Amino acid sequence: MKKLLILILSGASLLHAQYPSGAEVMDRMDRNMSSRNRILTSTMIIHGPRSSRTIESKTWAVGDKKSYSEYLSPPREAGTKMLKLEDALWIYSPSTDRTIQISGHMLRQSVMGSDLSYEDMMDDAAYKENYDAVVIGEEILRDKQCWVVELNAKTPDVSYQIRKVWVDSETYVPLREDLFAKSGKLLKRTDLYDIKRMGNRWFPGKIVFKDMLKSGDGTEFIIDSIQFDTEIPDYLFTKASLR
Amino acid sequence: MIRFLLKGLIRDRQRSLLPAIVVAAGVSLTVLMVCYLTGVLGDFADFSAKFSTGHVKIMTRAYADNMNQMPIDLSLTGVNELLDEVRKDFPDMEWVIRTRFAGLLDVPDENGETRSQGPVMGIALDLFTPGSKEPSRLGLEKSLARGSLPGSPGEILISDEFAQKLGVVPGEMVTLMGSSMYGSMTFYNFRVAGTIRFGTSVLDRGAMIADIRDVQAALDMDDASSEILGYLPGGYNEEQAEVVRTVFNSKYSDPGNEFSPVMLKLTDQSEMLKWYLEIMEGVSFLIVFIFVLAMSIVLWNTGLIGGLRRYGEVGIRLAIGEEKGHIYKSMIYESILIGIIGSAFGTVIGLAFSYWLQEVGLDISNMMKGATIMMPGEFHAKIIPQAFYIGFIPGLFSSTLGTMLSGIGIYKRQTASLFKELET
Q: Could you tell me if B161 and B32 lie in one domain?
């Protein structure tokens, strides 16, 4: 009996040993998703409960900490600019000619009516510092073999206490991320599609965000063009550039 | 006989003045109490109807389910067409478009940077259409504390207390940061035309009144509004509102479509409001009942004492040969006369006080500081038809009943022992 128990336990530990560590999977994923800087133009299609709206924008970003976006269309949103510097976010509204810092509960508002909040936008992908990552299993998602990584927050001051990421075990691109509240309630789901080879990395061409507490069919974020690691002038990341 | 008794009452004031004064005082208090409690109830419903609920309110079904959160993304669309339809269907009623919204009011400094900021609850209504009753419905002119009423597009009113907190004076620009009908953050500049004081803590803490067209532009609500309010011609009437609701919902509302319009009447819109109105109605009825009963006992006692006080007089009248029945009848007639005169005077005095309270009102805003529900800061009395006769219940019937009871003693008195009684 003892021998059988030892055999089963060692078998189980051997099986578990086949999984890479959570940190390793997240590191390899970061190599795909993070870059020194990037310039991207995108189309956001917001599928509301009544109708869909399309918003085009251009974003300049340096790492996870600095980004500058300008909305190009529709006319009502055109000219609106957003500047993110570390933990601060400013919005310039051309109709009022005002630059206003967004803070507090306003950060929970939706970005242009999408399923994405400003808080989500501010959320740096600082998984290493804020979360403990553990690979909890393997699953097939959209015909791809994925590692399922569970991330549990180390501190209570993060937006989502639990994250679950499905990482393609071949390309190490996340195909899905579920964001949960502390209670375990699923709050948001992000699905990544059209994974393409871009230089030395794999990167999604389309991301679908879905706020699970909202009606509607989610928000499609289509990357029309993206350039990695090109020079971006520093003046862009100042409040003066918003006007 | 009546003329004779009347002369007696006028000439012998010792006998009639005090009972008449007591009856008049009791009746005037009863009338005042009835009018005041009716007025309080009416004011509460009226305030709610004017500011928030209307007598009936049209919303989308989805909005109605989450009404307290003011979800403008679930607002009505195509409101102008719907407005035309309901105006055709219910021509006696008045229909208005309103939007309630929430956001942050941001005050810039000379560099355009945020100087101060505070959460605001907004009401958008028709301020500029010639003949619009909305400004007077909300009593904006009366509530104006500083500055003037909005005279042109882009001008708003904000609560005086809120303005002081933000350090804003009339004439300054402020930016509304809100959420558009499509959920995106929106910014819109307004000029503060004036400040208002409603005397209602909830509104005075941070309210903003703007024209509906400005708010439609600010919140991207083209031909949309969160609500259409309807007002019945003669004030709120539960039965009439029920009829309008049933007719509207059967014609326009589709339970399968969460964006189809649905009508709710005033008492459907808040369980608390419904409960409060029911409780208030019950309590006010109880208070009036207890008060009328108490006054009846007091006035009955007056009649009783009056009868006993005249023990000697009755004895003499019996001694000189007056019929017991005649004395009893004359005392009752006398009591009826005193009751009628006292009740009439009391009703006139009570109505006069009620009229004063109806016009001037009782300011309770100081007591309402910190209140979390929307309540009027002033309560008024309301003169109702019942007020013209309710005082006669205690004033006439009770005092007469008291006299009738005390007068029974007349029949128990023996003529043989009268002189002996009168000697003592």
A: no
- Chain B residues with beta carbon closer than 8 angstroms to that of A106: 104, 177, 185
CB contact under 8 A, B114 and A46: no
Query: Is residue B69 located within the same domain as residue B10?
Result: no
**Buried b vs exposed e over B74-100: b needs ≥16 C-beta within 10 Å?**
bbbbebeebbebbeeebeebbbbbbbb
SS3 state of residue B136: helix
- Which among B77, B106, B183 has the least Cβ separation from residue A113? B183
- Stretch 98-137 of chain A: residues touching chain B, C-beta under 8 Å: 98-102, 106, 109-114, 118
Q: How far apart are CA B134 and CA B157, in angstroms?
A: 14
- Contact call for residues A71 and A78 (beta carbons, < 8 A): yes
Whether B251 is covered by a domain: the verdict is no
Average pLDDT, chain B: 84
Is position A9 within any domain?
Answer: no
- Is residue A176 within 8 Å of residue A158, measured between CB atoms? no
- Which residue did the predictor score with more confidence, B235 or A167? A167
In a domain, residue B253? The reply is no
B43 and B60 assigned to the same domain: no
What CATH number has the domain bearing residue A59? 2.50.20.10
A57 pLDDT above the threshold of 50: yes
Q: What pLDDT is recorded for position B346?
A: 92
Q: Are strands A201-203 and B207-211 parallel, antiparallel or unpaired?
A: unpaired
CA dihedral A36, A43, A125, A110 (to 10 degrees): 140
Nearest-Cα distance to chain A for B164, in Å, is: 21
Please check whether residues B25 and B72 belong to one and the same domain. no
User: Are B105 and B176 spatial neighbours (Cβ–Cβ below 8 Å)?
Assistant: yes
ipTM at complex level: 0.72
As a whole-number percent, the residues of chain B with pLDDT over 70 amount to: 87
Nearest by CB to residue A113, choosing from B175, B180, B189, is: B180
Residues of B in contact with A95 (CB under 8 A): 187-189
End of a domain among B204, B231, B258? B231
CA distance B173 to chain A (A): 10
Number of domains chain A contains: 1
Residue B177's domain comprises 56-231
pLDDT at A9: 44
State which residues form the domain around A54: 21-242
A52: nearest CA partner in chain B = B182
Q: The pTM is what? A: 0.71
pLDDT at A190 over 80: yes
